[in-house]
Amino acid sequence: MSTTHEAGWAHASGALRGPAWLRQPVDPNALVPQLWSMTAHKAGGELHVGGLSVPELVANVNTPAYVLDEADFRARARAFRDAFAAYDVFYAGKAFLCTAVAQWVHEEGLSLDVCSDGELTVALRAGFDPARIGYHGNNKSLVELRRAVAAGVGRIVVDSFDEISRLETITAEAGMTARVMVRVTAGVEAHTHEYIATAHEDQKFGFSITSGDALEAVRRVEAAPGIELLGLHSHIGSQIFDSSGFEVAARRVLALQARISDELGVTLPELDLGGGFGIAYTTQDDPSDPAQLATEMTKIVEHECRALGIPEPRLSVEPGRAIVGPAMCTVYTIGTVKAVQLDGGAVRSYVSVDGGMSDNIRTALYDADYSCTLVNRVSDAPPVLSRVVGKHCEAGDVVVKDEFLPGDLAPGDLLAVPGTGAYCRSMASNYNHALRPPVVAVRDGVARVVVRRETEDDLLATDMGDAS
Ligand code: LLP
After folding, report:
1. Do both 223 and 253 map to the same domain?
2. Are residues 189 and 118 both part of a single domain?
3. 94, 97, 115, best to mutate for ligand 1 pocket (most atoms within 8 Å of CB)
4. pLDDT of 67-86, one tens digit each?
5. At which of 325, 354, 381 does a domain end?
6. CA distance 392 to 453
7. Ligand 1: which residue has its CA nearest to atom 9?
8. What is the dihedral of CA 459, 365, 342, 23, to 10 degrees?
């Protein structure tokens, strides 16, 4: 984007060259391997994932469809488990959760982070061991907390004094113990390539360390007979590429831990450093691998604990995007191709697909970058700078802002967008009464629909008609 416009980047002029990082591909038919799941490859122009031809797959399940590479998901889950072998790894279900995925998470030996009653329902329906579930959220109701405690959820991450009061009530009435972590705000806000360490913490999550609320929350929890305090929790953001933000957060949280030890005589056995590990959406992204992250984070914690003279807590992390993000791609059918004349005479190719902001809101919501490729044939046509847009009634309904695509794209061709596993199906909507697409898991030549496509009956199921 080279200029801004009050109505947003989609309206800006002068963007025709695309962003500085976008290069014309040497071979537009080839996949960029680091953006795709591990079994993805092209053969004769057709994308194959999990041993299946994607054009053949979608001939059966239709488009749009999310294709989930099970082997890739499991391999990434295992890589985190092995790299963080001395830690507990909680898969963050908010990125994407269904009962099949909860089972894979269990089978690969990870724990599970849920942040709503709905996610807890899916986890329990999948038979996930409640003792290995962590429960997040800044506004858990009495009813939700009662259910979590009764189900035996392994740890509840408390986020407010109101919630501590609710847990005091629940544990007293039920005669049960709730195991909790206290979420603290370390004053670090991490973004993709940089982090900002600020003194003020102007956001809704956690207890502020600097204001003294975090220490007070620990005091309250420690004093509550039915609440067992496991440790502190810090989550600094999402899509983070280096460990420097974690380093600042760990230093601040461990300093609080030392203060808790001095002032309250309490040694906290655990510490959670949250999720947020970045993935590659386009060629501009260069994420660290889990082993490198684990080494760096362990070094930071060891060093700080030694300096503060406190024992090292057992660490845990909560990756979501880094496990499921690259494991999925979304396949669309092209419906229209329009050459749009811009100011100055340049032309942008608008390629409309049969989904859009209802199945991937991230481009519109976060100005996120994606890439995409033609997946049903080889094309020798010279690539043209294109914008892939959805079919919703809104100009900001963009899936891929800028991509070089073959100049001969036509209705009926298939496009696939890699890296859509995290926060796409989980944030999908029925905007314009779109039917949310299925998630099809593929593995060793076998496809299984793990989340089916919505139907018109689903759409109308909550519509009560005119009751008068
Ligand atoms: N733990 C906590 C406490 C979190 O709040 C989150 C994400 C995670 C773990 C997992 O973060 P991950 O490893 O997936 O980055 N919808 C946004 C991302 C929101 C993240 C919310 N919290 C997006 O599409 O980029």
Report:
1. yes
2. yes
3. 94
4. 999 999 999 999 999 999 98
5. 325
6. 18
7. 275
8. -110
Tens-digit pLDDT profile for residues 319-332: 999 999 999 999 99
User: In this structure, what CATH number is given to the domain that contains residue 347?
Assistant: 2.40.37.10
Residue 9: pLDDT band with limits 50, 70, 90: very low
- For residue 462, being part of any structural domain is answered with no
Q: Ligand 1: which residues within 6 Å by Cβ?
A: 92, 94-95, 113, 136, 235, 238-239, 274-277, 318-322, 362, 366, 422-423
- The residue written with tokens 């947003």 in the block is 8
Condensed to tens digits (0 to 9), the pLDDT of residues 399-413 reads 999 999 999 999 999
Residue 28 structural domain? 9-68+326-454
For ligand 1, atom 5, the nearest C-alpha belongs to 235
Which atom of ligand 1 approaches the CA of 321 most closely? 14
Shortest-distance atom of ligand 1 to CA 274: 1
Tokens of 448: 């299984």
329 flagged as catalytic: no
Q: Which residues of 88-115 are buried (b: 16+ CB within 10 A; e: fewer)?
A: bbbbbbbbbbbbbbbebbbebebbbbbb
In a domain, 439, yes or no: yes
Assess if residue 459 is contained within a domain.
no
Residue of minimum CA distance from atom 21 in ligand 1: 238
What is the average pLDDT score of the chain?
93
The pLDDT of residue 8: 44
- Tell me, yes or no, whether 291 and 342 share the same domain: no
Place of tokens 């999908």: 428
Q: How far is the CA of 398 from the centre of ligand 1 (A)?
A: 22
Nearest to 137 by CA among 114, 153, 154, 118: 114
**Ligand 1 atom at minimum distance from 235 CA:** 3
How remote is the CA of residue 238 from the centroid of ligand 1, in Å? 5
Residues 315 and 330 both lie in one domain: no
- Residue 305 domain-assigned? yes
Q: Answer with the one of 287, 309, 325 that is the final residue of a domain.
A: 325
In this prediction the pTM is 0.95
Of 83-87, 117-121, 376-380, the one with minimum mean pLDDT is 83-87
Same domain, 419 and 373: yes
Ligand 1 nearest-atom number relative to CA 136: 3
Averaged pLDDT for residues 258-269: 96
178 and 247 both lie in a single domain: yes
Q: Work out how many domains the chain is built from and give that number.
A: 2
Q: Distance of CA 269 to CAs 204, 213, 257, 314, 423, Å?
A: 26, 20, 10, 6, 32
- One domain, residues 407 and 266: no
* Rama region for 187: left / alpha / beta (φ>0; ψ in -120 to 50; rest): left
